[in-house]
Amino acid sequence: xxxxxxxxxxxxxxxxxxxxxxxxxxxxxxxxxxxxxxxxxxxxxxxxxxxxxxxxxxxxxxxxxxxxxxxxxxxxxxxxxxxxxxxxxxxxxxxxxxxxxxxxxxxxxxxxxxxxxxxxxxxxxxxxxxxxxxxxxxxxxxxxxxxxxxxxxxxxxxxxxxxxxxxxxxxxxxxxxxxxxxxxxxxxxxxxxxxxxxxxxxxxxxxxxxxxxxxxxxxxxxxxxxxxxxxxxxxxxxxxxxxxxxxxxxxxxxxxxxxxxxxxxxxxxxxxxxxxxxxxxxxxxxxxxxxxxxxxxxxxxxxxxxxxxxxxxxxxxxxxxxxxxxxxxxxxxxxxxxxxxxxxxxxxxxxxxxxxxxxxxxxxxxxxxxxxxxxxxxxxxxxxxxxxxxxxxxxxxxxxxxxxxxxxxxxxxxxxxxxxxxxxxxxxxxxxxxxxxxxxxxxxxxxxxxxxxxxxxxxxxxxxxxxxxxxxxxxxxxxxxxxxxxxxxxxxxxxxxxxxxxxxxxxxxxxxxxxxxxxxxxxxxxxxxxxxxxxxxxxxxxxxxxxxxxxxxxxxxxxxxxxxxxxxxxxxxxxxxxxxxxxxxxxxxxxxxxxxxxxxxxxxxxxxxxxxxxxxxxxxxxxxxxxxxxxxxxxxxxxxxxxxxxxxxxxxxxxxxxxxxxxxxxxxxxxxxxxxxxxxxxxxxxxxxxxxxxxxxxxxxxxxxxxxxxxxxxxxxxxxxxxxxxxxxxxxxxxxxxxxxxxxxxxxxxxxxxxxxxxxxxxxxxxxxxxxxxxxxxxxxxxxxxxxxxxxxxxxxxxxxxxxxxxxxxxxxxxxxxxxxxxxxxxxxxxxxxxxxxxxxxxxxxxxxxxxxxxxxxxxxxxxxxxx
Length: 868
Hints:
Elements: H1 2-20, H2 24-39, H3 49-73, H4 76-92, H5 96-112, H6 116-127, H7 136-151, H8 155-172, H9 175-191, H10 195-208, H11 213-226, H12 230-243, H13 249-265, H14 269-285, H15 289-309, H16 316-335, H17 341-363, H18 366-374, H19 385-401, H20 405-421, H21 428-433, H22 435-452, H23 455-467, H24 481-499, H25 506-531, H26 545-557, E1 563-570, E2 573-580, E3 583-591, H27 592-609, H28 616-638, E4 647-650, E5 671-674, E6 679-680, E7 693-697, H29 702-714, E8 719-721, H30 728-737, E9 740-744, E10 747-748, E11 758-761, E12 764-767, E13 780-784, E14 792-793, E15 799-800, H31 802-808, E16 813-817, H32 823-838, H33 843-851, E17 860-863, E18 866-867
Parallel strand pairs: 1-4, 4-5, 5-17, 6-18, 7-8, 7-9, 9-13, 13-16
Antiparallel strand pairs: 1-2, 2-3, 10-11, 11-12, 14-15, 16-17
Helix pairs in contact: 1-2, 1-3, 2-3, 3-4, 3-5, 4-5, 5-6, 5-7, 6-7, 7-8, 7-9, 8-9, 9-10, 10-11, 11-12, 11-13, 12-13, 13-14, 13-15, 14-15, 15-16, 15-17, 16-17, 17-18, 17-19, 18-19, 19-20, 19-22, 20-22, 22-23, 24-25, 27-28, 29-32, 32-33
């Protein structure tokens, strides 16, 4: 008999490991083979130890079949039949531990199928005894009981159960269960709104090992999406989808549902509808009506997202039909007394009612819209952020549609304050990413303002939206040794690749690639680590048209004020609000597609013109094309402003990094740019900073050293660092203290990972990531490096790049190139720029004076706030 039992235990262990790894076909085959073995074995009398051991293995095999069958096929009836069979064997044999496991698996199946009340009853029964021994089955039951409370609205009890599960797992040395409990505690922190703590807990669980990787990726994606890092969330979900392709049907459905929400944020509404539809079908197949209803809500929200952008082209009858579908879904969930309780109301009833209300408002039926809105509580407590922001967005839309502008604006501001209070991730990247959550509020606000035709209303709406995700995530650099180590290792890997020099041998190319791949991996780890460090983000107050006009009148009284132009792309058009001390005008400029193409062509031509390796004939053709594109952009965007003097531009996207100073009508005139109108008070450039003027020249170019020496010569007493002395530590110290910092070095803008845009210094690249938390108030920074003025716009429209990080941390001005900058051009222009700064000119005026005599377009732009 011992031989049979040994084979049976080995079969069980193999099948169990396949089950844990979600190889459900292998698990089912193994559990069935175990049952076949036991069926043909003579294990002695009924009460003998061997017989009891065999009966216990039979119970465990049936429970394994139940889990694998339900997860892979959604066959709840067949899974419950296997549980019932296991229960009969456990009771007949007096197998108390196995009877406990049976009730735990029954509760788990009820939970997975959405029968919350029955699942709670099952777990309450099995955990009621005070003398339950600390076994793996107890840890599993506590884990699922805690997950039940987590998913359905009782975070206090969830915390107690999950901590207890982790403690039992630690006592037993069950590392996989400890990891799963700690992972769920991370998800609890997410539900409670502490996103850095959530990612830290999930990271700790991943280091322990044991959490199924698709589940870990799914939950990580939920946190990242909530932080606004939607692209990263989609990447995690795509990885999870590949891993679970032949695994749990329910996990596949959850991946599709979470993906649908991300696709909505990316405005890929048709794809979001399909993902939500697939999720709804999978949940229905598993008998989980609760989650099927959630997926149906997501499908409706995706349709509504498209209708918001196309509201003038969607027939009212269609809008009303969709409102009726949403109402039917809400009433169905509400009317059946759903066992999901508060969580179901948050995930189905209230979102569906808000969708019905908004569709009615879009259709012009404000009476119905108000009635549906009234069924959604004003205080949604710890509801998901999207729901809490959705209610004020609908309130605003109804108020604007009824002609109550002040009430609509108050609702928008309420939502934006809610977003500011949301405890997001602790990095400047995440602060920018939070703008994705403001998009819905911004759209309602801007559409309503445009409908009034009032330039001041449009300006105010734009600035409210732009301020929502402005500023930095923290006010001091993160004190995190692990993050510092990862950044240092990434720098070393870059240096190792550079040290190989130019090489064409297979061995050299392979070694260089290995170093660069390692650097990218370290950068990705540093980026994720930065999300786990808390920040102290301070809300940014938006500028109003009234405040701006008053400030401009004050500037005019003291010698001159600029024209301010705030650009925005809405639908197929580009518009601008022009303001000066006397008033404001709304200008409808060119077609968006035409302007986008001119911007693209300008950037391409600038790159060709600056490349001395390209034949002169081709560079001459590019120069002619560049002059034509700049002239066309000037005629479309600037000439209609009637701005003969200073011009301050506020813009987003491609317009932000347009070479504004190179436009023909701006030659020799002060022009500076920001992603919002930031009225900045205070002294002159660097007035409050103790560190003087610091100039650094990075390696690899003779022009940088000549340029740095010429710039340093302009400033008596300046600090010059070249060669081995131009290190990242010197640069960071200068940025933290100096009044004026000039950095002449090779630079690189990284399109797909903007915060690893960098300057090459003696000890390696200085990454934009390393600027996070620096106090740059009043500093003027000149980046004499290719393309470091460029930025990428995230999903919410926020700019990310080297220069944008400096500005978010308070720099008074950043002069940077938005295209490749030739060495000979930099050597001529930069000393003249600093002569202007030393003479007391504002940075934008100093740049205009420095470039006035150049025949070729200079791709330098002055970025900064509007000093008053």
